[in-house]
From TrEMBL:
Gene3D superfamilies xrefs: Aspartate Aminotransferase, domain 1, Type I PLP-dependent aspartate aminotransferase-like (Major domain)
Presence of keyword Lyase: yes
Pfam short name (any one): Pyridoxal_deC
Residues where N6-(pyridoxal phosphate)lysine is found: 288
Keyword Lyase: yes
The protein's name in its UniProt record: Pyridoxal-dependent decarboxylase
GO terms, biological process: amino acid metabolic process; carboxylic acid metabolic process
UniProt cofactor(s): pyridoxal 5'-phosphate
Length: 454
């Protein structure tokens, strides 16, 4: 398999041509899913004893299968949290694969981990964490949240033998992402959502929520998870109020900024995150609002030793890495994964190439697009805003529409290749939602979508 023959060279050129064409195309066809049986009918079985050949396999992918996917970077893909990886980052993602670097330990991955750490240094600086804070890249926000919560629980367990035998408890705000609850389940920890009067959790509400706990539950409390930009509405909890409460109560504060983390670099909204610099850990997803290809999440810690206590793996065959010459930063020590793609490298290359100011303005553009969309919605008599836009999320209503009408509209637009915009639920009502990430989305794109709501 290792000899390079002419077929492989030709294949490589085909693949590279496809990759170049794809990243040059800023309005790719908006594909949509097909039933598995339909796809099988179209391509046939692809794994055979003899192999079907690279040329054929690639053709099936290029001409059939990729068309049954939604390009997440389409400028009128405004559903969920879309993406817009930079060309530089995508190109370097290819390089990351081609370089075959193991990202767990410095001994094998030093040069690549150096790149990641350069990018991480910038993430730590926009978060404003104190000296000594650092972090690692993960496969995404879910794993970053899990890694942080495991570190928090370990710290709590290490305080008292009483804590070893009992189930831990996490307090979260109303807008907490589903992954926080899912990961609490993975850890077999309990989770309580604290009600808030307004749209975000305040320090007083957290204080009251802790005071209401029974003595035995108060003892089980090992972390508070606040959100720095809810996925549904872009809402940021009152971090400046929450952080001092956590400090006073000696409870680990994790801030989930998987979606909103990019906005830490946006000067126009940075003040909304004040207090985040006091967090014990933070999740940021570069594959959301920092223009990295999938997958790239990040977890940042104020105290790296505490993360290491929780995550460092021991094994006979791993002892060599503790040897001299291999001394350095070992990403495996700070999150749940061992063998690891150097997934921060595409972000590093793109940041190095463009500089951080370009990033700041591309993120500001998402915030500006939300403001523009809000204005355009208010201008149309058949539409209205549900609440003010927040970060790059816009929640709005088509007056008089039912949940079914929103759903039909979503499918119609998707099927016709116009746009992917999905409804959401806000205070028990089905409404529509935009989430802007892609700085190439235009005002004309927004108009085009709003016209389909008439
Ligand atoms: C997307 C998101 C997550 C989950 O991140 P993945 O990268 O999808 O694993 C967690 N929290 C928030 C706030 C998110 O927006």
């Amino acid at each position: 398999m290792h000899t390079i023959d002419m077929n492989l060279v030709e294949m490589t050129l085909d693949v590279m041509k496809y990759a170049i064409d794809r990243i040059s195309n800023i309005t790719p066809e908006l594909g949509s899913p097909k039933k598995e049986e339909e796809l099988l009918e179209m391509v046939g079985e692809t794994i055979t004893d003899e192999g079907i050949g690279g040329e054929k396999a690639f053709k099936l992918f290029r001409d059939v299968l990729v068309k049954a996917t939604v390009p997440i970077d389409h400028p009128r893909h405004l559903a969920f949290v879309p993406a817009a990886p930079t060309r530089a980052a995508i190109m370097f993602d290819l390089v990351t694969s081609a370089s075959s670097i193991h990202g767990a330990y410095w001994m094998e991955g030093a040069g690549g981990i150096f790149c990641e750490n350069q990018a991480m240094k910038w993430l730590v600086s926009i978060a404003g964490l104190p000296e000594g804070s650092f972090g690692v890249f993960t496969s995404g926000g879910t794993v970053a949240n899990l890694s942080a919560m495991v570190a928090a629980r370990e710290e709590w367990r290490s305080r008292s033998t009483y804590n070893i035998g009992i189930k831990g408890l996490v307090l979260v705000s109303q807008g907490a992402h589903s992954s926080v609850e899912a990961m609490a389940k993975v850890m077999d920890a309990d989770l309580i959502k604290i009600d808030s009067k307004g749209d975000f959790l305040t320090g007083e509400e957290l204080q009251a929520g802790i005071a209401e706990l029974q003595e035995k539950d108060r003892k089980r409390l090992f972390a508070v998870v606040a959100t720095g930009g809810t996925t549904n509405a872009g809402i940021i909890d009152d971090l400046a109020g929450i952080a001092p409460v956590c400090e006073k109560e000696h409870v680990w504060l994790h801030v989930d900024c998987a979606y909103g983390g990019g906005a830490l670099a946006a000067r126009s909204v940075r003040h909304l995150f004040n207090g985040i610099e006091k967090a014990d850990s933070i999740t940021i997803d570069p594959h959301k609002w920092l223009f990295s290809p999938y997958d790239c999440g990040a977890v940042l810690y104020k105290n790296m030793e505490l993360a290491k206590n929780a995550h460092s793996q021991k094994g006979a065959y791993l002892e060599i890495f503790k040897d001299e010459g291999a001394q350095g930063f070992n990403p495996a020590d700070y999150q749940i994964q061992l063998t690891r793609r150097i997934r921060g490298m595409p972000l590093w290359f793109s940041l190095a190439m463009h500089g951080t100011e370009k990033y700041r303005s591309a993120i500001e553009r998402g915030i500006e697009l939300a403001k523009i969309a809000a204005r355009k919605i208010e201008e149309r008599p058949y539409l209205e805003m549900v609440r003010p836009e927040s970060l790059s999320v816009v929640l709005f209503r088509r007056k008089g529409w039912t949940a079914e009408q929103y759903r039909d509209w979503t499918y119609r637009n998707h099927k016709e290749g116009i746009a992917l915009v999905t409804p959401t639920i806000w205070k028990n009502e089905t409404i529509s939602r935009f989430c802007f990430i892609n700085p190439d989305t235009t005002e004309a794109d927004i108009d085009l979508i709003l016209e389909t709501l008439k």
